[in-house]
Amino acid sequence: MDSNAETPLLTSKHITTNAHFTGDAQDIPPINGISDFFVEFGVESKKLWYLAGPAIFTTVCQYSLGAITQTFAGHVGTLDLAAVSIENSVIAGFSLGIMVGMGSALETLCGQAYGAGQLDMLGIYMQRSWIILFVTGLIMMFLYIFATPLLLLIGQTEAISHAAGKMALWMIPQLFAYAANYPIAKFLQAQSKIMVMSYISGVALVIHTVFSWLFMLKLGWGLWGGALVLNFSWWFMVVAQMVYIMSGTCGQAWSGFSWAAFSNLWGFVKLSFASAIMLCLETWYFMALVLFAGYLKNAEIAVDALSICTNILGWAVMVAIGFNAAVSVRVSNELGAAHPRTAKFSVVVVVIFSFIVGVLLAILLTIFRHQYPAIFANNLEVQQAVYALTPLLAVCLIINNIQPALSGVAIGAGWQAAIAYINIACYYIFGVPLGLSLGFALNWGVKGIWMGMLTGTVVQTIILIWICVRTNWEKEASMAEERIRKWSGQKRIVEEQ
How many CB atoms lie under 10 A from the CB of residue 398? Predict the structure, then answer.
């Protein structure tokens, strides 16, 4: 297992090959003039959106489940909104970062097995990941059980801690839905069955919205109704995807449950843990933003206002994550195919699209800055606080659309270790201390905390842009080719092609 540490390039290359959207037969020619640029931009845009479109839709739908529950909670009461936002951002957010990160190890293994024609291994890898993630879920369940004393220990108010702790207990089934869902998602993604995931996520979102309104507001069940529907929606996606898999649509990739899933678990644990590190550093950073707001005076208003902003930001980031997934495949595919100019140009295209989407979202938010806070909360004080944060949110929408796309470039090029160190430096050594200094020492409140942490994201984005500009893409392509030669099974795969 450990010898596969750099398999993502092989994975992405063969996933795209089997999905019939491979790179060109040859590298793009040098671009001379505006007309050449727009011709190549059109070609690359189609390849990018073929991947990004379904990925964006799926991630937006899945994120919206918790966000919609949070939105309805704002119409139940300020304490209810604070409880849901703390549970959703801190407890569930912490768990989600670990589960998604550990599940990402499966992307490497399933992609390699699929590219090598070892379809029967995909189901075994998925089952192996289930075992690891369910055990992880059992360990993390204590975070949910003892959420109230833990939140009190880190300084949250007693009212918010007890309400969020009660919500956390109700959300334990969601934790195990995470453990089941993400291995399934990587299993299907490796076979390019992305549209199936999109359809199921879309249906789940519609069901979730209707029943959340019915139970939380119409029937007056409040947080209990929200927890019930949120658990059901996640497990609906898990069961629907498993029905699809077991119906025979995946062919040899699913041949039933096997005892082989219990072999080599330790190697799988190490690979899963390594995959989680980079993603968790990103996820926990924004989780900490809501957590710090709980230490301010009038904590309920501060947490509510910031949670509404991060709710909106989360939707926008889901779009960026779609670009992240698409460009990581494009870059790794073209580097693996020894097309350095195409790889470099795909970076240009994804940054342009990410910037345009971010600007459009920021403009839309600014136009409706007087109206949108009322959608999320009835309390006028919360609405005014959200309105005051709107300029920061608009800037954040632009930055946080570009940054994930650049992280996708780093993943595609195999720079994960370097980016993890950059994240630690920019986020936790620079951004968090600056945010705490502005928020508490200078008494700027929630706005100061956010400005400081946003500055950390800006610095990280600038560094990523600098790395992409300074990169010798011909050298990266040569390094990718050298790695491919060393991977076991690669010779047989090339001969079969």
Answer: 20
List, in order, residues 6 or more apart from 99 with CB less than 8 Å away: 133, 136, 137, 175, 178, 179, 182
pLDDT of residue 152: 86
- Closest C-alpha to 194, from 20, 368, 341: 20
**To 5 degrees, how large is the angle CA 187–CA 68–CA 199?**
35
Give pLDDT tens digits for 375-407: 877 888 888 888 888 998 999 999 988 988 888
Taking CA atoms, 441 is separated from 107, 160, 250, 434, 448, in Å, by 44, 24, 57, 10, 10
Average pLDDT, the chain: 79
- DSSP-derived letter for residue 389 is H
**65-90 CB burial, b ≥16 within 10 A, e <16:** bbbbbbbbbbbbbbbbbbbbbbbbbb
Q: What is the mean pLDDT of residues 269-274?
A: 67
This prediction's pTM:
0.70
Return the amino acid letter for 130.
W
| Helix 172-190 with 194-212: angle, nearest 10 deg | 160
Are 168 and 227 a contacting pair, CB within 8 Å? no
Q: What is the rounded distance in angstroms from the CA atom of residue 351 to the CA atom of residue 75?
A: 37
Looking at residue 497, its pLDDT comes to 42
Domain containing residue 296 = 2-496
Q: Residue 295 burial (CB < 10 Å; 0-12/13-18/19+)?
A: middle
| Residues 461, 406 contacting (CB under 8 angstroms) | yes
- Residue from 177, 325, 170, 314 nearest 237 by CA: 177
Q: Beta-strand (E) ranges in 353-395?
A: none
Instruction: Tell me the residue type at 366.
Output: T
The answer to whether the Cα torsion of 135, 138, 287, 430 is positive or negative is negative
Could you give the CA distance from residue 362 to residue 367 in angstroms, rounded to a whole number? 9
Triad 107, 310, 81: Cα angle to 5°: 115
Contact 41, 346 (CB under 8 A): no
- Cβ neighbours of 369 (radius 10 Å): 15
Number of independent structural domains in the chain: 1
- Express each pLDDT in 311-323 by its tens digit: 788 778 778 878 8
Structure tokens at 30: 């040098």
